[in-house]
Amino acid sequence: MSRVAAIDCGTNSIRLLVADLPPDGVGDLTDVDRRMEIVRLGQGVDRTGRLAPEAIERTRVALAGYAARIRELGAERVRMVATSATRDASNAEDFRSMVRATLGAEPEVISGRQEAELSFTGAVRGLPLGRYLVVDIGGGSTEFVSGATGVENAISVDIGCVRMTERHLTADPPAPEQIEAATADIEAAVDKALAVVGGAEGVTLVGVAGTVTTITAIALGLTEYRPDLIHHARVSTVDIERVAAELLAMEHSRRLAVPVMHPGRADVIGAGGLILRTILRRTGVTELVASEHDILDGIAWSQAA
User: Which residue intervals define the domain Ppx/GppA phosphatase N-terminal in the entry (predicted)?
Assistant: First the structure.
């Protein structure tokens, strides 16, 4: 086995996976350590087009801890990717310089297509053979990718829980007219994406990332966050509609009190639920399969020799 480290730096969170790859790529990853910090790197990027200095500093602090853990666990290879917020920022070089100094490795600012492909790889391993549509709801963008044994069609669109919150859902709780404006933005982006990936007819819809797994945990009635119960859980569209509506109607303080809610996600989960609800409505599916495996696992698998 070879030990690798994968880092996914998105608009809202930065995550680390240290894992052992199976010999010859046959079998499953063996997790050694999996961590997540909410750093909100994409703070204000939709409005300013730049990464805020304080957001870069929050990310540096988290990354320094990850770098120490990677050394401690003896990972042989490290791959770090950065996604939507860094693609959009005019001062992305400030971020890259910070990463080189902190991690000793170059961050890869990947395209939306590459992000979609890595998400698909991570999400469908371990699922039965079939046709899948994977949706990855991030902070700044959402990826749609379809295929069976491999990626066939993929697109990234600029709707994410942080971006939609900052652009539209500024009241607490959001006002009806704000929800209406956000929904119009989201519907246009989802329809564009589905035209590329071919819709959801005859496929299983798989959802990944924090919005999906948190809403799944709430729909399942969990009193603590349990990845083992969330992974590959099937959640009905009816239950997701209910949870999304409840989250949109809550004040921030009530969302913070939800037992499975990460504190750094409470202010943007309403927008995430709105995105997920819109995807389900536009695809017409009756259920969603939630996956705890996503782009982070895809990054790890990409380092297989």
Answer: 28-282
**3-state secondary structure at position 282:** helix
Per-residue pLDDT tens digits for 38-60 = 999 988 888 898 999 999 999 99
CATH number, domain 127-291: 3.30.420.150
List the Cα angle 208/214/216 in 5-degree steps. 80
Residues of the chain below pLDDT 50: none
C-beta separation of 9 from 83 below 8 A: yes
In 3D space, the residue among 105, 117, 55 whose CA is nearest the CA of residue 85 turns out to be 55
Task: Report the topology of domain 2-110.
Answer: Nucleotidyltransferase; domain 5 (3.30.420)
42 to each of 50, 64, 266, 267, 290, how far by Cα in Å? 9, 19, 16, 14, 25
Give the contacts of 59 (CB within 8 A, at least 6 positions apart): 9, 14, 39, 41, 95, 98
Q: Greatest CA separation found in the chain?
A: 54
How many residues comprise the chain? 305
Cβ atoms within 10 Å of 68's Cβ, excluding its own: 10
Q: Are strands 77-82 and 108-109 parallel, antiparallel or unpaired?
A: parallel
Task: Give the domain ranges of the chain.
Answer: 2-110, 127-291
**Nearest alpha-carbon partner for 143 in 165, 113, 163:** 113
